[in-house]
Write a structure and sequence with these properties.
Protein name: Sn-glycerol 3-phosphate transport system permease protein
Organism: Blautia caecimuris
Largest sheet: none
CATH topology of one domain: MetI-like fold
Subcellular location: Cell membrane
Family: Belongs to the binding-protein-dependent transport system permease family.
Number of strands: 0
Radius of gyration: 30 Å
Keywords: Cell membrane, Membrane, Transmembrane, Transmembrane helix, Transport
Length: 305
């Protein structure tokens, strides 16, 4: 038998090309099915966990559209049988809710802008400038994070009382124009930049403020976004300080105004829940819009290089 005929004969136990392709397709199909199964399982777990977490919020929204007669019954009414907008309308009629919302926006907006400016300037000093006692001063700034706000609220009240600015916008804003947490966040972000960047800018005749505005701010958008979201939500939810320093509806914030909807009758429960649903919309919207910036800014300074 010739050599060509020997090559043409199939070798015993040899797998053909079509069989190999069939086996490969089978393995790919099984792997794809496993990946889809794991993805479906994770998605189902996330949906169930999100539902459990959001259940109080969803029930609050349901109560906001529920007449008071349906809330206080022997039946368990999870969804309103006769949805109504009257709770939201009466909430605006009973208290000047729009004025309270505007006051909260002014206070939270000014505090957010003020903290971004002051904290970024302080962080620049601790990151790029060299002066005696810089490490000790930074430790003292960080030590203020261990002091609870309740421990300083009386001294702050006496100070602003002597200044004669009670029941004004400045008294809501001035004590919170800076924070140790913001200084730490910006400093950790600035520490990821090489000092040679600042030295090169100085050799080119760039001043400190120009360096911050032209170079640092464009490079720190994620940190600024994280700081803005965190500060705005904290300022929007502030309760104790506005309650202490405001005495008229002209300066009260929305967190104080909501408590004015509470009374002895059962109807006030649905009114107050309707007001709560309305005032959490801005903070939830800010968080949803800026959550990527918040996460990126919080972790961007964790790894250097």
């Amino acid at each position: 038998m010739s050599q060509a005929e020997n090559m043409a004969l199939p070798i015993e136990g040899q797998i053909s090309r079509s069989e190999l392709l069939e086996i490969k397709n089978t393995m790919n199909t099984r792997a794809l099915a496993k990946r889809r199964g794991r993805t479906a399982l994770r998605l189902t777990a996330n949906v169930l966990f999100a539902f459990v977490v959001l259940l109080p919020l969803l029930y609050a929204v349901s109560i906001a559209f529920m007449p008071s007669s349906e809330l206080f019954t022997t039946e368990l009414n999870i969804l309103p049988k006769h949805p109504t907008w009257s709770n939201f309308i009466n909430a605006f009629k009973n208290v000047p809710l729009l004025k309270f919302i505007m006051n909260s926006f002014i206070m939270a907006g000014c505090i957010t802008i003020g903290q971004i400016i002051s904290c970024s300037l302080a962080a620049f000093s601790f990151s790029f400038l060299e002066f005696k006692g810089k490490g000790i001063l930074f430790m003292l700034v960080m030590a203020t994070m261990m002091v609870p706000g309740e421990a300083t609220i009386i001294s702050n009240y006496l100070t602003v009382g002597k200044m004669g600015i009670l029941d004004t916008y400045p008294v809501l804003i001035l004590p919170y124009l800076t924070s140790a947490m913001g200084i730490f966040l910006f400093r950790q972000f600035y520490m990821t930049f090489p000092v040679s960047l600042y030295e090169s800018a100085k050799l080119d005749g760039c001043g400190n403020l120009r360096f911050i505005v032209k170079i640092l701010i464009p490079l720190t958008k994620s940190a600024i976004g994280a700081m803005a979201v965190y500060t705005f939500i904290n300022a929007w939810n502030m309760y104790m300080w506005p309650l202490l320093v405001t005495g008229s509806n002209e300066r009260r914030t929305v967190q104080i105004g909501i408590s004015m909807l509470d009374s002895v009758d059962s109807q006030s429960i649905t009114l107050m829940i309707a007001g709560v649903v309305m005032i959490i919309i801005p903070s939830i919207s800010i968080f949803i819009i800026g959550q990527k910036q918040l996460i990126r800014g919080m972790f961007s300074g964790a790894v250097k290089g």
